[in-house]
Automatic annotation (TrEMBL):
<keyword id="KW-0862">Zinc</keyword>
<feature type="region of interest" description="Disordered">
    <location>
        <begin position="1"/>
        <end position="24"/>
    </location>
</feature>
<dbReference type="Pfam" id="PF02585">
    <property type="entry name" value="PIG-L"/>
</dbReference>
<dbReference type="InterPro" id="IPR003737">
    <property type="entry name" value="GlcNAc_PI_deacetylase-related"/>
</dbReference>
<protein>
    <submittedName>
        <fullName>LmbE family N-acetylglucosaminyl deacetylase</fullName>
    </submittedName>
</protein>
<dbReference type="GO" id="GO:0016811">
    <property type="term" value="F:hydrolase activity, acting on carbon-nitrogen (but not peptide) bonds, in linear amides"/>
</dbReference>
<dbReference type="InterPro" id="IPR024078">
    <property type="entry name" value="LmbE-like_dom_sf"/>
</dbReference>
<dbReference type="GO" id="GO:0016137">
    <property type="term" value="P:glycoside metabolic process"/>
</dbReference>
């Protein structure tokens, strides 16, 4: 793994996994000069489960965050009698409400088929377009690897989303010869600096972000996805307990696989 530009934990390649404990998102943003973050999810609520506390802390610190959902999530939900089109409308409204809770103004919805996302060249091109529009320093995405410790994290759509985002992040977004129609529209190639991957296999986790104080904001964002929670109290209890376990010292944290795509000493192809 490439070494982070600034070591947040006092030594080693794993920011936040060593040293005194989880890292404050505002500190991470300051250390790495983050002004723009782009977060991807396969379905509405994916980003909120994985990173809502961190996103809320980023926006509070003045970082602009954009959300992009690959599907409308029309194959989800537990209420009988709703067709796919109605479910898609409901879930879009839920996601926009959740985003507002986190201080996020922009939500982009793509039109992939819920349950059948695949990292095709077409989808990668759509993601490259959005990346070149937003030009973030940091991209948040589900992990492309399966997590055997909790298989529910590894919905096929999540892994396909992660694979498409990673492919877009390198090499396509920075290759001026890839997707030439984008360059013709003025969407020039640029380099993504970092990835922060949710739903990671436990052995890949190398970053914990301290979101103590944002846990209630995260719960409010998750509650906005009302159609997905037949037992909201059980969901909240599970998520809060998991965040306490990740923190390990009486607070709340979220965990990620942090990857540096382009550091100051990175040579293309190596």
């Amino acid at each position: 793994m490439a070494r982070p530009e600034s070591d947040l934990s006092g030594g080693g390649d794993d920011p936040g996994s060593q040293g005194s404990g989880p890292v404050a998102p505002a500190r991470l943003a300051a250390e790495h000069g983050l002004s723009s973050v782009l977060a991807f999810g396969a379905h509405p609520d994916d980003i909120d489960f994985g990173a809502a506390g961190s996103i809320a802390a980023f926006t509070e610190a003045g970082v602009a965050v954009t959300l992009c959902l690959l599907t409308a999530g029309d194959a989800g939900g537990f209420e009988p009698g709703r067709d796919a089109a109605e479910m898609a409308r409901v879930r879009e409204a839920e996601q926009r409400q959740a985003a507002a809770v986190l201080g996020v103004d922009r939500v982009i919805l793509l039109d992939e088929r819920d349950g059948f996302v695949a990292p095709t060249a077409e989808l990668v091109g759509k993601i490259v377009r959005i990346m070149r529009e937003v030009r973030p320093e940091l991209v948040i995405s589900p992990h492309p690897e399966r997590a055997w410790d909790r298989l529910q994290k590894s919905h096929p759509d999540h892994m396909a989303c992660g694979e498409a985002v990673v492919r877009a992040s390198y090499p396509y977004v920075e290759n001026p010869f890839a997707y030439p129609e984008l360059a013709a529209e003025g969407l020039e190639a640029f380099k993504i600096r970092h990835l922060m991957l949710t739903t990671a296999p436990q052995e890949r986790v190398n970053l914990r972000l301290d979101v103590t104080g944002q846990e209630s904001v995260k719960m409010s964002a998750l509650r906005a996805h009302f159609s997905q929670h037949p037992d909201a109290a059980r969901m909240e209890g599970y998520v809060l307990e998991k965040m306490r376990q990740i923190h390990g010292a009486g607070g709340y944290a979220e965990e990620f696989h942090w990857v540096t795509v382009n550091a100051p000493d990175t040579i293309s192809g190596f």
